[in-house]
Write a structure and sequence with these properties.
The protein has one helix spanning 68-72, and strands spanning 13-17, 26-34, 38-43, 47-53, 60-62. With 73 residues, the protein is mostly beta strands.
Length: 73
């Protein structure tokens, strides 16, 4: 498994995909904590401590991976 402290850093702007959300869209968030096997993300419109482990890390992407027009919405 990847060491998530080498991939994400505290304060990093990310997008998280929430499959339980009725709109199933990417939400803006900020990494609060990083650990070897999980990270905590603050997603203001959902939860301030969403935990993502190695198995679900595909649902978290750095914000710079999105086009500028997608960042507006």
């Amino acid at each position: 498994m990847a060491d998530l402290t080498h991939i994400f850093h505290v304060g990093q702007k990310v997008r998280v995909f929430v499959a339980d959300d009725i709109w199933q869209k990417w939400h803006k968030g900020t990494v609060k904590e990083t650990h070897e096997d999980y990270i905590l993300v603050d997603v203001p419109d959902i939860c301030d401590h969403m935990q993502y482990e190695n198995d679900y890390i595909g649902d978290v992407r750095p914000e710079y991976n999105f086009h500028l027009d997608e960042l507006e919405g």
